[in-house]
Amino acid sequence: MIEAAWPLFSSWHKQSLPASAEIDAPGLRSFALFWLLFLPFLILTIPTLRWFFLAKTIIMPFFGVSLFTWALTASHGFGPLLSIPTKINDGMSVGYVFCYAITAAISVASTFTINMPDVTRYAHNPRSSTVAQAICLPVCLTLTYFLGIVMGATSQVVYGKVIWNPLDVVLIWDNRAAKFFAGLLFAFANIRTNVAGKSVPFGNDFMALFPKYMNIRRGQFLCAIIGFAICPWKIEASAARFLAFLNGYQVFLGPIAGVLLCDFYVVRKAKGYNVSHLYKPHGIYWCLDGANLRAMAAFSMGMIPQLPGLIYQINPNVGNISGGYVNYTSLAWRDAFFFSRYLQFAYKNAVSHVIFCIVCIPSKRTWTKKTRPPAPLGGMHQHPALRHIQMSRKLRPQL
Description:
mainly alpha; Hydantoin permease; 17 helices
């Protein structure tokens, strides 16, 4: 966008930074300006930003259609795009590369899926959030993936090389007006995505970890500072590194999603939570000093088998990791998700009675015949071991 308004911007002190920085001076200046432009939006609350999200929902589909039209026009239809031969340089088979790409796509969707409650809690009713998660999210992400694939294939047909980043494709355009408005819309969309999909969930998580010192707004500004300090341009230095990053953090997101879904839909039969007790020390969800050992064990057992593949993706020269194990981790999100989900269910049915009796019943809890804990939404979600104790002693706990 700045280059379209000021053509000399891209060459002004371009070689000021060393090659090890993996970014030139114009790119660093652009990132810094975007970061400063992004900060004021952290002050606004989600209800205040809803009009910006509504504008993005209306404008960005037209922008996507425009990019898709340009891609088909420049490449003269789907024929040249579909005739591009498959070329794989790292020795993996086509099937495993396909699984690798699917896992990268799932990683992006998994981020929004897990962070969705941080935004959908502002919805007017449960139906609104259900429509957003079940329909809009998969449809919009699938169309975005398809647009990126078409743009990359078009760059190979038109410019003779694969340009995986759509912003780099826009930089090659000769039309300055088209370049300016395309950059403006990309910036507009990324600011909204960063607020809703990154800074707000980060602020909520850190507020939960350090409620005495953090609130959502402080957590958002901390996220912005860390986001600059980690040098994110190094992640986007190449397509291989970017895909390695996407396939890296899904090692942690897959087990989290598996444990959460199993706990809600299988263990608790989708009957809801007692919200007040989610924030109450020594409540019905407290377990051992606020930690659910079964969930932690299920998460760890789903994550640990994927770590060698993550190490290889970060640095292939570290360790002696076989090619077969790397191929196995090409579907790491799926494997970690189902492994953690099955373990969470197994722990609940096989060893949960013993664990619950030992570590999940506070020793200082008093028992009377007149009181009982408030029921979660949809009925009592008490553990079978606790119900057995209550029935045998004919006593009820007082929280």
